[in-house]
Amino acid sequence: MTRITEQTDVLIVGAGAAGLSLALRLADRANVVLIGKGALTEGSSRYAQGGIAAVLSDTDSVAGHVEDTLAAGDGLCDEQTVHFAVERGQENIRWLINQGVDFTRRKKRRSDDSFTEYHLTREGGHGKRRVIHAADTTGQAIVESLEQKVRLHPKVTLLDYHIAIDLITTEEADGSSTAVGAYVFDRKHNRVEAIAARTVSLATGGASKVYLYTSNPDTSTGDGIAMAWRAGCRVGNMEFVQFHPTCLYHPDAGSFLISEAVRGEGGKLKLPNGQPFMARYDQREEMAPRDIVARAIDSEMKLHGLDHVLLDISHRSPDFILQHFPAIAAQCEAYGYDITSMPIPVVPAAHYLCGGIVTDLKGRTDINALYALGECSYTGFHGANRLASNSLLECLVFAQSAAEDITERLQRPQTKFAPIPHWDESRVTDSDEEVVVAHNWDELRRFMWDFVGIVRTDKRLKRAASRIALLKQEINDYYGNFRVSNDLIELRNLVMVAELIVRSAMQRTESRGLHYSLDHLHKSDTAKPTILTPEKPNKPNKPGKSDK
Ligand code: FAD
Ligand code: SIN
């Protein structure tokens, strides 16, 4: 018998900014189970540096934030979604402040209730200062405040080290599917359990671990996207992977991010001989959107055969630098670089996936009672390139709107929990070749970096596609024969997401936003999102059967 550990109104998979916000917004109205696959809140949100973009100053406007978002998105943003998210920025920042998030204040404080007391920083693509932040550890400030609240809430059950494997769905008479729970691997007890739920929300974050070099933590393996795809949801714009221009270059730094706010506050990109170069690429120089800056760095590195370029903010006073970027300064110091007196070496790394599970403005997916929000979703907000600091905003806004829809859904007359099919382990044994998993992880991430990176060609994409097909076959055979483990679950998802990225990239025969192809340098007159539709959902509860 499959152990059903919980029966709940709301199952939220993922406890980053999106999942935590959703849990808190629903907790007074429903029973919530919130799961994280490692330590509860480990995920990208915790590492966010720059801040959250919102219209908070008297000199800014919704129209200005909308315009900048659309410009960065390069013709592919959904305008309705952009208005929806930007208009809700201010109330969501207020909500965070009410949850106890202590944003950095200006030196001179005003006593009124407006946002004028807060310091707003600048980042690439923003025409105004509109990024509210907690020094350079904004994500940590948010996650810690929200986590403290959910931990105290009597109606929220927290399950850490629980990794969701697959969604459980039932078929309706009209042919549609409804989510009724998820199979979950309890990493502490090494067993698969089921959680039955009236609604399931995926808030599993991004997939940048599919690349060898990334700013993301280990959690970003695209699990929610792969689960939703296997269950029958469409995905959109998967080719648009954002490479952050500036991660610290050091063999031990593990792609530590150097916030765009460093450039926003005057940091200059330079060649090793001290020459700045951004003016040759864009008149906004260091403040151009990320796709342009990352490509410029990539091009200079290739042109001059460099391992890295330099980022220099040492012309600002040490006091200013240490007040605004204390964590970055400390991290650089640990690697032997004094950011207050010298330029630091930087390189681009995979940072953010603009595409994901297709949703509407309420976070609803193609499956009844299944929601997706945060980085795993595709709402149309980011288009072909996300504007800096718009991601946390999206997490908050869609947590708010999904919470409203879930509340309404739960008010309808309730039926009994659907029966949960057994997790079938009758045909699997313990793995005798863990090395296969480790090897395939490494191989996948390396060729994705080499063939599906900042600059693409048809030939490289084809190479990646054929390697993915082989790997996928091998991984699915392995998945079919052996008991699941955390690494195997993640690898199965990563190869799925890699396939979706490459398929989408091959369909885009133009260069737009983050997708830049040497074989298709033009931009088409009409901008169309890439929407992929799965053929037919797999039955998830048979590990002995291969994926399609
Ligand atoms: P995450 O915060 O990544 O959380 C995902 C959660 O899902 C985790 O709890 C994880 O354990 C869980 N999970 C995943 N898979 C499973 C599974 N199978 N089962 C159970 N749980 C699972 N954006 C901004 O707007 N401003 C910034 O300043 C900024 N700075 C950034 C700096 C860095 C270094 C990075 C990496 C990103 C930054 N971003 C920033 C992007 C932004 O942080 C992320 O897009 C956003 O935090 C994603 O939030 P999320 O809640 O969707 O996912
Ligand atoms: C940064 O601080 O540069 C990251 C901001 C973001 O990803 O939006």
Please give a structural write-up.
The structure is a single chain. The chain is α/β, with parallel strands linked by helices and 548 residues long. The chain folds into three domains: 3-239 and 354-410, 3-Layer(bba) Sandwich (FAD/NAD(P)-binding domain), CATH 3.50.50; 245-349, Flavocytochrome C3, Chain A, domain 1; 434-520 and 533-547, Methane Monooxygenase Hydroxylase, Chain G, domain 1, CATH 1.20.58.100. 34% of the residues lie in helices and 17% in strands. The chain has helices at 17-26, 62-72, 79-87, 89-98, 138-152, 223-231, 260-264, 290-304, 318-324, 326-334, 390-411, 434-451, 458-481, 486-507; strands at 3-13, 32-35, 52-53, 120-121, 131-132, 156-159, 162-171, 177-186, 191-202, 235-236, 241-248, 268-270, 309-312, 344-353, 356-358, 370-372, 377-378, 531-532. The strands form four sheets. Strands 1, 2, 6, 7, 8, 9 and 16 form a seven-stranded mixed β-sheet that branches. Strands 17-15-10-18 form a four-stranded mixed β-sheet, with helices on one face. A four-stranded antiparallel β-sheet has the order 11-14-13-12, with helices on one face. The longest helix has 24 residues, at 458-481. The chain is globular and about 65 Å long. The relative contact order is 0.17. Residues 541-548 have low confidence and may be disordered. The structure holds flavin-adenine dinucleotide and succinic acid (SIN). Succinic acid is lined by residues 49-50, 259-261, 388-389, 391.
